Amino acid sequence: MMDKETQIYSTLLSILVLHGASLIYADPASLWGRKVDFMRYGCTHWELAHSIPSLKGLSVCVEIQRSILTPHWTVFMYSHPGLGHVDIGLKGRDNSLTGENYLLLWLFGRVWSTTFKIRLNTWYSVCITWSEVALSPRLYINGNSVDISYSGEQSGTHTGNYIVADGHLTLGASHFLNNGKMHLETGTDFQGNVTRFRMWNQELPVSQLEQCVDGNVVRWMAKDWHTHGCAPVDDTEHQCVWSLYEVQMNVMIYRWDTQETNEYKARDLVHNWVENVLPPNMYIHTVLVSKLERDNTTGESTVLMDDSLQQDSESVMVIPIENQFACLVYLNVIPGADVSLVQHEVKLLLQNEHSADNIVLFPVHSTIYISPVESLPVVTLEPPHVTTMSSPSTSPALVVLTTASTTGTFLPSSIVTGSKPGSVTSSKPVSTFASDQTMNSSAFTIPSISVSTEGTVSESFFKVDLTVTLAGSSMNAEQKIQAWINETLTKEKMSLLNFEFLWKASSLTPIGNGLNHSEQSPLTSRTSHNCRFHVQATTSSTINETIDQIRNSLEVPYDTGSVILDAEPDQIIVCHITPGRCPQQQHQTRQGLFNWPKTSAQHVASYPCEGNTNSTAERKCLLASNNKARWAQPDLQQCPYVVATIPDLEGIMVTAENANDVLDMIECLLSNHTDLNDHELSTILNKLSAVVNITKVTPALGKVIVEILSDILESNSNFHPVTNNILDITESIGDRLSGFSGENFSLVAPGLAISVVNVCPDQFHNLTFGVSSPMQGKSPEVYINQHPFDSTVAFISLPPSLRASFPSGPGVQPRILFQFFGTPALFKDGRKYKALNTFVVSASVTNATGPIQGLKEPVAVTLHHLQDKPSELDVLCVFWNFSKKNSNGGLGGWDPTGCYLHNTSYDHTTCLCDHLTHFGVLLDLSRTPVDETNGKILTIISYIGCGVSSIFLGVTVLTYTAFEKLRRDYPSKILLNLALALEGLNLIYLLNSWLSSLGSSVLCVAVAITMHYFLLASFTWMGLEAVNMYFALVKVFNVYVPSYILKFCALGWGIPLIICGLVLILRRDGYGSAPYGASLEPSDDVFCWVQDDVTFYVSVVGYILLVLLFNMAVFLVVLVQLRNMRFNRPAGMRSGLFKDLRGVASLTFLLGLTWAVALFTWGPVRVPLLYMFSILNSLQGFFLFLFYCLMKENVRKQWRVHLCFGRFRLQDYSEWSQTATVPAKTKLGQAVKFPSVKSVRSNKSSTTESTSASSDSSQREVSIRRPNLGLLCLNGLTLPRAQPTHCAPVHRDIPLPQEHGYAVSPWLTKTGSHLESDIN
């Protein structure tokens, strides 16, 4: 007896050694979720490890991402030594000059091309299909058909209409064959990433190519490829979500009674084992099991042992092959999940052995392979058969197990359906891939074996897996099957629980019934359905008797006349389960505290309400789908709220037991609040802090807290008093988080992310943390040790010197905590002219040896700007100082100590700091125009002012255009042109936002150019007004300009045109649209204007400054002249102060001097001066109308003559000709004769009339007669002074011959009072 037990334990130990060894040395993993990075050093190409058969049709799919431009590049290439051409391949060419690329498709030596452009750093799914009947291949990119054309290029001998077998396939480079050896072609490398290369032996539709199914000729599996030292890397950018999977594996079953296990028992064992280990979202569709059989054709036995142990027979244990089984398990994952994740999770879950009664099941790990399949089996199949070599002896077939190494494979080779009469027969080939397995010994504990006993119970529960064949209409099949099961069990005095309808197979119609579709009976339509449910039985029968009772009742066919439901005995799997009882639980809710007692499954517990003891709350203990008892949500409808508002939470003490309940209450209360007052905010944060400090922070608990904090941060609340509290809570979550697998774990919610990384001090060299751009209402993505990319908004890199700050001591695990805050409103420190223009990111070390500061190597922080930074504004690198008390009311604030700017651009800033904490970037707003509120007011003022100016400028233009007598002099014509320029500027400004909102880039550029042109034209004409005034008041004599106004128009309208043209030629992107205003908040208003800073400062600011400087100089000269004339005029003839101020004001607006106010909008007076600037300049057109139309006497007279009626109408009057003759200097003693001229102005004209015409006569043609020569002294556009030899000086004391009809010009009087009168 002892020898028997010793043999049993020795055999079991041998099984466990083999089991552990296969765990260590498993098959190569699938490549799903991995990619080839050919940019890595030493990565040249991959080569297919096996041959390709002859193909008369194929489909190839691959996903590619190019990183850099190269003249020639190859994705893949397949060729045969005897052909001399490329059988099939995908290549490309780049044009470095034009930036264009061409995608080339090779088939049978012929080249097809397409104009589809493959952009850099962008993933593309490229599929090629071909069949022997097709004239050309088909190309699909990202699921869309792409046109291809035959280029006429061909090489080698065309093989006809099939792919030749036994060629060479390379991935990532081209190759050529020389004497049967393969060599790579230089300069054809693919510089980028490749993943999911698959090939099928037929032409598939594009819809099937997009599925996450592996190929049947070439698979994306490591064992199919020779990597040549280029190992695959993780692919985090792609996910392929799929639901249908096939699991291949071999299992070994050991029985303590040493009896043989039949296939039905093995199938039940495998089914129960797989079902118990898989999560609830993975459903078993079919389990197929077959014994490993001997091959009677050879008469030999395969002994699987290591060569070193073959000589030692005592090291070998043998087990009958009847206890070895090959299995196929088909799974349906609902909802679908990424293929790589499913493969990893399922293989991990199938590692452990399974015990049942006196049987132990061991999976052979090296044979487990999970692959996505296109569809699940639609008929009942017999288990697969695997054939092994038989022994020449008459003894039973044996599999030899050793304690050392063993090689072999147990994968099934084919699946054949049953041959039962009336069943549908089909076969499904299963790929077999031979591989060598190496198994080494491993030590572990032998599991305990228990044998179940039967007994009498009053209430018991059972789990049933049932496959039903439905003959007839399958409409509402789920309801029909559920109704049948419920009716059947009710007859047996049992209850149906947790019915799950898992899947429906395709319709199955018997073959060869001789009926066409119209003749078929409704009952000939058969479908197969699978369901799962629990049964509650209250009986005195034993467990086995109840199982038989359930099985027998479900075996009886159910016929309603319209449908027939039938289940085969082998498709009814019944297992007894013991769900246990729901535990005693203290449950804190908004309706009060409830103490639920221990309760059996499917029973209801009741408890009186805290707010009203006359009412009762109920809670049911359910039998869950995982076969265990669990509490359902309580029914509290009869109980009033005890915690009705957020302040009511103060009366609840947080404990480890009710922490989750408190969080549930907070979530419920926050769902009805869009904003929180200070008291409510403080109450919630205090409870969250208590939960974190009292309870073990698991990933699930941490996620709930982070989501609550995210909801708080998205509310309209004042975070100023509680910023430090929120930061302390997030810090505590990261420090106390436990129970997660792997080295790092992240908790994310909208606007908030917390990541913890457990590091090994000896292996720490560098650590990075990046966060992608968080969209509104969505959680950001976190990247650990990955470089930033375009959508990264925060990135922090920790230096190796941080290792010195890690905590030391036995059992202490250093941890680095990263945090990201996407709510800038959380960080306010009262700075008036500094604004946070980035999100906030932080890093810290848990249990550090001391404050982490003064690092030898700085911490690099790169933050993306929330709004593009104007080039004229400065940024400041800062950190959040918790202890800062000199600002923000002692609640902490931003501090630049230890941080400095590394570099900055319009969209991001990089800072370097010598310590760890919360980092951000402040934008210096002291140079920005105004805050948001004042900015909106100023915008409204500008629009109103420009609108008013546009109206009155229009009146001014119409007045001077309609009345010819008003524009006879030069100043009036200059004024008319200035009014036209300002009118255009005001109108285009008013229409700019509307035109830019149309979304046309061409229209926006045209609007920006037009506005730029009219702005320059306005200032040009202001400058010409100053030039005209300078000629009239300073250079009074010897000034003659032919075609005076014509040349002024050429300058006034031509110079702006030249400048705008140069901008278009030199900087094509100089014009465009941008958000309107200087606010940092996002704005939908856009404005078409000059976008390039250099262009703006040169062509706008510089030009305007030059004009203003010149106008100011002329203005000062005029003021000096005015002062001199006031003092030289007799006391009785001096004008009043009001008239002088009116003249100064008119010149100020005429010369545009009010624009100079912008130069002084700094410091405390910035806002008032901006208001002044907006009011004065937007109303410039109105003031021009006021001074040069409304207050000008001759304009009013013209209005009265032409526009008024009755007693207000003024009879037409004649004015003097607005020409004058300017005397030149004559020789001393020589008389000067003036031709007859009319007065420059009416003596009745008001002094304001001459303001526009500074000097009416000085700007006209100057005719100087020399009696002795009779020559005309002319001055050109360069306006040089007349030479004394040509024009004699004027003798001031010569009497003027008024008696001959000459009018005496006022500016020739001795007192020079004409200057003062003209200005006034």
Automatic annotation (TrEMBL):
InterPro entries named in the record: ConA-like_dom_sf, GAIN_B, GAIN_dom_sf, GPCR_2-like_7TM, GPCR_2_extracell_dom_sf, GPCR_2_secretin-like, GPCR_2_secretin-like_CS, GPS
Domain G-protein coupled receptors family 2 profile: 938-1192
Cell location: Membrane
Regions of compositional bias (Low complexity) in chain numbering: 1242-1257
Main location group: membrane
Membrane topology (UniProt): Multi-pass membrane protein
GO MF terms held by the record: G protein-coupled receptor activity
SMART domains hit by this protein: GPS
Residue spans crossing the bilayer: 940-962, 974-992, 998-1024, 1044-1066, 1096-1120, 1141-1163, 1169-1190
Keywords, ordered alphabetically: Disulfide bond, G-protein coupled receptor, Glycoprotein, Membrane, Receptor, Signal, Transducer, Transmembrane, Transmembrane helix
One GO CC annotation: plasma membrane
Domain of life per record: Eukaryota
Sequence ranges assigned to domain GAIN-B in this UniProt record: 773-929
Annotated Pfam families: 7tm_2 (PF00002), GPS (PF01825), Laminin_G_3 (PF13385)
CDD domains xrefs: 7tmB2_GPR112 (cd15997)
Annotated region described as Disordered, given as residue ranges: 1242-1262
Keyword presence, Cell inner membrane: no
GO biological process assignments: adenylate cyclase-activating G protein-coupled receptor signaling pathway; cell surface receptor signaling pathway
PANTHER family linked: ADHESION G-PROTEIN COUPLED RECEPTOR (PTHR12011), ADHESION G-PROTEIN COUPLED RECEPTOR G4 (PTHR12011:SF277)
Protein name: Adhesion G-protein coupled receptor G4
